Amino acid sequence: MSDDAQNKKLLQWAVVVLPIALLAKFVLLALPIFLSLLVNNYIDYAARGLSYFAIVGLSFLGGVLFWASIGFLVYAVRPFVDANKRWALYVTMVILVLAVLVSLMPALASFFFTFGGNDGSAY
């Protein structure tokens, strides 16, 4: 298989992976909402700490999965971009890495909001 055919195959995979990752992101973001309702209604306070870690982890995983799929698409487009304009792709990849770090922020905010109460409670 030639390099051109291999690059086209990679691009086709990237185009297929992106919508699947987007759907997975929304599922992983909806699942924590469902879990938090379940935790608040049916699980005692002692089990909440561990379950909140799971909720935050699922949200973070959804964000990372989505941004990684966009990074895969950018990487797959790379061979089709003129060599003079490849700098834009590298800047895009740096922005994607920053986006993954930003997707960690809600996880941290959720953690500090949950466990940062000055009266010792989660609310």
- The end-to-end distance, rounded to whole angstroms, is 59 Å
Structural class: mainly alpha
| Number of discrete helical segments | 3
Total domains = 1
The tally of strands reads 0
Mean pLDDT: 71
Q: How big is the Rg? A: 19 Å
Specify the overall morphology: elongated
Brief summary:
With 123 residues, the chain is mainly alpha-helical. Helix content is 84%, strand content 0%.
Describe this structure in words.
The protein has 123 residues and is mainly α. The chain has one domain. It is built from 3 helices and no strands. It is elongated and about 55 Å long.
Please outline the helices and strands.
Layout: H1 3-42, H2 45-77, H3 86-115
Helix pairs in contact: 1-2, 2-3
Question: What characteristics describe this protein?
Answer:
single chain; 123 residues; 3 helices
